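Hey all, quick one. A colleague (J.T.) asked me to put the NAP job into the tracker so the inputs and the structure tokens live in one place instead of scattered across chat threads. No bug as far as I know, just bookkeeping. Sequence used:
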Amino acid sequence: MAKKYRVAVVGAGLVGKKMVEILLERNFPLSSLRVLATRKREEIIAGQKFLVEETTPESFREIDLALFAGTEGEKGASRTFARKAIAEGTIVIDNGSDFRLEPDVPLVVPEVNKAALKYHQGLIANPNCSTIQMVMILAPLSATFGLNRVIVSTYQAVSGTGREAMDELENQIRAYCSGQTLSPQVYPHPIAFNIFPHIGGLSQEFPGYFAEEVKMIKETRKILNKPDLPISATCVRVPVFNGHCESLTVELKKPANPEEARAILSRMPGVKIVDDPERNEYPLPTAASGKDEVLVGRIRANPIFQFGLDLWIAADNIRKGAALNAVQIAEEMLAQGLL
Ligand SMILES: NC(=O)c1ccc[n+]([C@@H]2O[C@H](COP(=O)([O-])OP(=O)(O)OC[C@H]3O[C@@H](n4cnc5c(N)ncnc54)[C@H](OP(=O)(O)O)[C@@H]3O)[C@@H](O)[C@H]2O)c1
């Protein structure tokens, strides 16, 4: 009989709940599934009642695989518990940014660099949501035409910040429609009927850049194994509930016309072409939301770079940008006999 695994999801926020849903939806071979967070309570997740447990260092004693989706940083779940879990023999797939750039931590998008998994030391990192959807497009273009330079601007949904940010957008819209204003709690500015080019803290290393932009630069270089790839990112928060979009400009090493690029991208697993502008068909966050694929369209020659293309992409940042990619990593570990 095929082996089944004792799995824990750490974090019961937007991403943690979606991980539970996707593990069940894709029939991951589970012998048990526990949900851990900061405090004990009952929650309905994917239509089932789960007893959410408080995470402690002992929580991982009987766990084969832990998917971490807790808050990032000093007091977050990953920094507090991931190394302890590994010491208990648990394999950790971490969704946050705490370990992504460490040299002994594979940073994996299975369709792009699954070979990196075999070098794992107990911890595998899931990339940033904006990075995942971009490398799904860059990797096949790079493999065929070579990649010289990348310029990207993102249009990121509030679900990327978590549940409280989704509530903030909804509450501000309701207040606005009834003639009131609500002061922001989660973001530095009102998000309803507004946008701002600010995601994360200011970087010391890349003066003038915010953290999300630096994540896109460094993580893309690591995943594509191109440490010197010239790449510039501008990350923008927009009043969309779910689904990140990106305007992507690439300079390739060889000529690529839009038809060839479309053909290459149509063969990439996990990518779907939505590109019929005459019929008003192009990737939308509302269409990407709830879907597994990264949608790509508006594929056109860039008039500035000699071998340049412009593209527009959309993906569900909670699914492919976080929970789905983490579960796909776990599935790939199984397929490679690493679990
Ligand atoms: N949302 C996205 O698009 C996205 C994409 C990629 C990556 N991520 C990353 O994924 C992580 C989770 O995001 P989210 O949107 O799900 O956040 P969220 O809705 O704010 O949920 C965070 C969860 O983490 C739990 N938690 C926090 N500190 C913990 C600790 N020390 N020990 C155990 N559990 C702890 C919280 O527990 P309680 O419920 O008990 O408070 C909560 O369930 C973050 O690191 C985020 O940066 C998010």
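Adding what we noticed when we looked at it: Residues 10-16, 37-39, 55, 69-72, 75-77, 80, 95-96, 129, 159-160, 162-163, 317-318, 321-322 surround NAP (CB under 6 Å). The mean pLDDT is 97.
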